[in-house]
Amino acid sequence: MKPYKLHKDLKLGVASASTQIEGDINNNSFYEFSLIKGRIKDDSTPFVGNQHYKLYREDIELMSKMHIEIYRMSIEWSRLESKEGEFDEAVMQHYIDEISLLNEKGISVLITLHHFSNPIWFEKKGAFTKSQNIDYFLDYVEYFAQHIKGKANDFCTINEPNIYAMSSYFLGKWPPAKKSLKLARVVAHNLAISHIEAYRILHREIPECHVGFANHFVYLAPKSSHNIFDKMEAFLMRYLFQDAIMKAMTQGKRTRLLGSLKQDKGKYYDFIGINYYMRNEVHKFDVKPGEKGEKNDLGWEIYPEGLRLLCQKLHKQYGGDIYITENGICDAKDKIRPHYIYSHVKAISDLDYVKRYYHWTFIDNWEWLEGQTAKFGLVDLNYETQERTIRKSGELYTELIDNHAFTSEMINKYFS
Ligand code: BGC
């Protein structure tokens, strides 16, 4: 292991999502879904979370103590507009207060507007399966933009449109548990339009803002690099899973998978957002974690080089700044996380166009189908007492921020 420096403009922080952390969530699609026995591994619901909505001041204090520079957070649409067309001013004020406090502490925010969950009323209308529903999302975006003006400049419209469309409408694992390729394509198509329209609204309301979205990227490799079929299938899987939607959302371009968006072609991104966790191998149209690398608690193959290769490829294709909007590991014992951070940050440390790295996540949270069982936090959470304890990897992360480098002292301290 070798020490390394971070290029001068690279900022480090943490990412989270409202449904996973806020607590008292009982009005969105994931809450309803979690009430069905057997859907969530431990039958927990997002109602508990880590009570961040109540404890946000303490959490920001902790972030500040850990010298976190940047924070990616999301807004709970089901809270802000719990009934169709009725925006709750007290909730808006809450987010203004939270964001103002972050600003005061010098932690700059990137705000996600849609992170997987929908208000129940929107879900009941068919959510993004219907093009006429897009306006409901845009009304919320407009309201939020008008009220947050002057307090925030960086926005991520939609988190992982590819994972949402696939898990909810093709694999049937997430609400509303549909299994239809046709619906998944329609949803992806409508999400692309939603992003482009939200991009326009945000720029109209806050002209100096930066807007993008966070796509999920897996390093998809052929199982055998000598097998022409594996290679072709890996290429096809990359197109279906991540590349087509990128083209549509960033540029409004027609793709075979999503069809024509009937939007003007243009440039609808001010940064490229990459959520990256793992490498998978493709063989006979089956996609599985590879055998070579180490695995996290969920069996995902760890492959830091994949992050670098993806950044290089996307930069070549799209240019401009890249933000690593999520990268992290499920590791309850915190055994692999220190090295995971070392190797993934190293992989991007000299790429001067990668401007931000948001570690997923700050405090253990409600991990969708895994409920409270999966531990992704730099900070451990005791769900009973809501006590937060900084893990060793959290301490390491603070040192990495302070030194703006991974020093030989850190290597000795954390890996001897
Ligand atoms: C999602 C997060 C999730 C993380 C770990 C990402 O796909 O955006 O919400 O917690 O992966 O599974």
Give an account of the 3D structure.
The strands form 3 sheets. An 8-stranded parallel barrel has the order 2-3-4-5-6-7-9-10, surrounded by 6 helices. Strands 1-13 form a two-stranded antiparallel ribbon. It has a two-stranded antiparallel ribbon with strand order 11-12. A hairpin with a 2-residue loop joins strand 7 and strand 8. Helices cover 41% and strands 19% of the residues. It is of the alpha/beta class and 416 residues long. The protein has a single domain (4-218, 291-414), classed as Alpha-Beta Barrel (TIM Barrel). The termini are close together. Beta-D-glucopyranose is lined by residues 17, 159-160, 163, 216, 275, 326, 360, 367, 376.
CATH architectural category: Alpha-Beta Barrel
The global form is globular
Rg of Cα set:
20 Å
Distance between the termini: 11 Å
Unreliably modeled segments: none
CATH class: Alpha Beta
Q: List SSEs in N-to-C order.
A: EEHHHEHHEHHEHHEHEEHEHEEEHEH
Helix-strand makeup class: alpha/beta
CATH topology value: TIM Barrel
Question: Counting H and I runs of at least 4 residues, what is the number of helices?
Answer: 14
Domain count: 1
Helical amount among residues, as a percent range? Answer: 40-55%
The mean pLDDT is 97
Strand order of the largest sheet: 2-3-4-5-6-7-9-10
* Superfamily (CATH H level) name: Glycosidases
Distinct compounds present: beta-D-glucopyranose
